[in-house]
Amino acid sequence: MSLAPYSGPCLITVAGTVIDGKDLACSTLEVRADNVRISRSRIRASGDFAILFRSGTGLVVSESEVTSTSPGAADRAIALWGADATVQDSYVHGTRRGIELGNGARILGNYVDDFVNNSDAHATAILSSGGTRNVVISGNTLGCGTSHCSSAISLYPQNFAGGPNDDIVIDGNLLNGGGFCTYLGYTPAEGERPNTNIRVTDNVFGNKYYPRCGQYGPVASWTPPPTGTGNVWSGNTDASGGPVVASDV
């Protein structure tokens, strides 16, 4: 498919805006509107975010490439600060870090990897700093093999960001890289409380970057019930099909 140059604004404020089949080069493509759709497009950025969903609800990014104008030029590929966003069937790469979650996010069938982190910031494919709820992360290929990688998925329940994350499905993904492939726990010494209702099911912990998925293993700081209310770890395997249990560190 041939992409047409995008000539619209880099700040989207009109509800229902549709960007389809476009090649965008913005410092940041910022969305402050409801029900914006970006499809079959390439977003190349050089700012702190390639796509910043600052406010609104219902953003959809599908079948698109999200990257930097040059390797590592943009910091985070996508920040979902608005509600009920969907990122689906897209190729996210070449930034320093990947996708920052928001409430109601749906991250489905994407390839999110191949970052270029030329900073001291900790990289990850998918991140919540805390307070994120009602999320589905399913059917993705998620990796982090650049410098200062924390994990493929990091769910930090930091108090400044809203405390524990809750009601997050992590299902059927291929995960690779980081110190640990997943960080899903909490630090009591810092006054944190555990994430709750985190369901990690039927994922493959691969060996693209390290034999045990992450440099030190597949998972750090998993909190089972009853402390981690509603947390489930089930059906997860390594690259050879063997079981991965939450105590495998």
Can you tell me about this structure?
The chain has strands at residues 4-5, 11-12, 18-20, 22-26, 29-32, 37-39, 42-45, 49-55, 60-62, 65-68, 76-80, 86-88, 91-92, 97-100, 106-108, 111-112, 123-128, 133-138, 141-144, 149-155, 166-171, 174-177, 182-183, 196-201, 204-205, 219-220, 232-234, 237-238. The chain is an all-beta fold and 249 residues long. The protein has one domain (33-238): 3 Solenoid (Pectate Lyase C-like), CATH 2.160.20. A 10-stranded parallel β-sheet has the order 1-4-7-10-13-16-19-22-25-28, with no helix packed on it. The model has no long low-confidence stretch (mean pLDDT 96).
Task: Provide tags for this entry.
249 residues; mainly beta; Pectate Lyase C-like; 10-stranded parallel beta sheet; 9-stranded parallel beta sheet; 28 strands
CATH architecture: 3 Solenoid
What's the mean pLDDT score? 96
Helix content: under 10%
Name of the CATH first level: Mainly Beta
So what's the overall shape?
Answer: globular
Count of alpha/pi helices: 0
Strand line-up across the major sheet? 1-4-7-10-13-16-19-22-25-28
The fourth-level CATH homologous superfamily is Single-stranded right-handed beta-helix, Pectin lyase-like
User: Class by helix and strand content?
Assistant: mainly beta
Q: Separation of termini?
A: 44 Å
User: How many structural domains are formed by the residues?
Assistant: 1
Radius of gyration: 17 Å
**Could you list the spans in which at least 5 consecutive residues all have pLDDT below 50?**
none
> What is the N-to-C order of secondary-structure elements (H for helix, E for strand)?
EEEEEEEEEEEEEEEEEEEEEEEEEEEE
Q: What fraction of residues sit in β-strands?
A: 35-45%
Largest beta-sheet details: 10 strands, parallel
